[in-house]
Amino acid sequence: MGYKAQFHPGTSDPSKNRKKYMDPAYKLQKIRSVSDEDVVRVLGHRQPGEDYKSVHPPLEEMGEPECPIRELVEPTPGAKAGDRIRYVQFTDSVYFAPISPYQRSWMYSYRYRGMDSGTLSGRHVVEARERDVEAIAKELIESETFDAARTGIRGRTVHGHALRLDENGIMFDAMQRYVFDKSTGEVKYVKDMVGEPVPAPISVGKPLSENELKTRTTIYRADGITIKQDAEVLQMVQNVHWERSFGGFEPFKEAKF
Amino acid sequence: MKIRPEIQIFPFKLISKETADKITDELTRFDFVTNVSVHGPSVNSNENENYMVGWIWIEVEDNNEDVQKIIKDVCDEFLPFGYNIELGRFTKYKKGVSDYINERV
């Protein structure tokens, strides 16, 4: 009998979306296309077409010591070439963003190798070798986990995930990295991740509608689907809370919820 | 000293400076409005200092139903996405201790 991972409890929409994103067998839906060059420009770590800077020679030239683990684990393309470590950081609005930082961490852990992710309340940073970062960033920006209005690519001055949206429904950004083009209805990046201007605006497409976002989100909210509507999720949260609070204190006693 | 009441407008979306200016212009036309102040997070676009508005405080001579109705009409026109109205005192109207120390007014 094969064991099939559930990834996340529950049957509600946010729960289903969480399961989807965390399941590495599920291919993220591609809803927009951004060229490789534009991804490099938004990240701002190097100029498009510029060589990758390296911190060590390619692994093949280095003559690695004999090691069963090294034989077992295939290095990522970036590690093979000796790239620098670079990062990409996303901010997710609390207003029904398609994904939130904590789920990003779960999702990345199931999907990507050779990366280090950091979760904060409103943003999520992932560090990896430069060409791996570019591949990860491209996949994420093009996929359904990115919304033009509720997700931001921000290296610094990330503040704004919990602020009210602006009149066009765009998440607040103090550096105004992206602007809403009223004539086309698209969101365009006019600055890179750290706020340096880019040569030409980079379009990331139209924001999704409120209803569409509510079906795609992984966030439980009082004005959407609350966590109380999903008994299994609530049970898990209470379990975790109990385990954390008591941490094995008097284990002979049954947990009371 | 008469302490005038203030009416706070809390829009459900952060509004642009331009929209806030329109509301301010509309409100300051009325005699019963003695002061309108706005507050919100600042943004830097193209190196220009700019800000978005999240709170509007309207100081009025006297708060009554007519005044509130007029203010609500103005808000309905410019804030179609909704807002909250609250009555109280939200900005400083006299010197505080630190103002005396710093010799600010």
Tell me the domain tally of chain B: 1
Q: Give the CATH level 1 class of chain B.
A: Alpha Beta
Most residues in contact: chain pair: A-B, 13 and 16 residues
Major pleated sheet of chain A: 4 strands, antiparallel
Q: Which CATH architecture of one domain in chain A?
A: Alpha-Beta Complex
**Radius of gyration of chain A, Cα only, in angstroms?**
21 Å
What's the helix-strand series of chain B? EHEEEEHEH
As laid out across the biggest beta sheet of chain A, the strand order is: 2-3-1-4
Walk me through this protein's architecture.
The complex is a heterodimer of chains A (257) and B (105). Chain A is of the alpha+beta class. Chain A has a domain at 13-49 and 94-220: Methyl-coenzyme M reductase, gamma subunit (Lambda Exonuclease, Chain A, Alpha-Beta Complex), CATH 3.90.320.20. Chain A is 31% helix and 16% strand. Chain A contains nine helices and seven strands. Chain A has helices spanning 13-22, 36-43, 59-62, 68-72, 77-81, 101-111, 130-142, 210-216, 231-246, and strands at residues 85-92, 115-119, 123-129, 151-153, 178-181, 186-191, 197-203. In chain A, the strands form two sheets. Chain A has a four-stranded antiparallel sheet with strand order 2-3-1-4. A three-stranded antiparallel sheet of chain A has the order 5-6-7, with helices on one face. In chain A, a hairpin with a 5-residue loop joins β6 (186-191) and β7 (197-203). In chain A, α2 (36-43) packs across α7. The longest helix of chain A is centred in the last third of the chain and has 16 residues, at 231-246. Chain A is globular and about 60 Å long. In chain A, 35% of the residues are buried. By secondary structure, chain B is of the alpha+beta class. Chain B is built from three helices and six strands. In chain B, a hairpin with a 2-residue loop joins β3 (42-45) and β4. The model of chain B has no long low-confidence stretch (mean pLDDT 89). The chains are: A alpha+beta (257), B alpha+beta (105). The interface between A and B is medium-sized, with 13 and 16 residues.
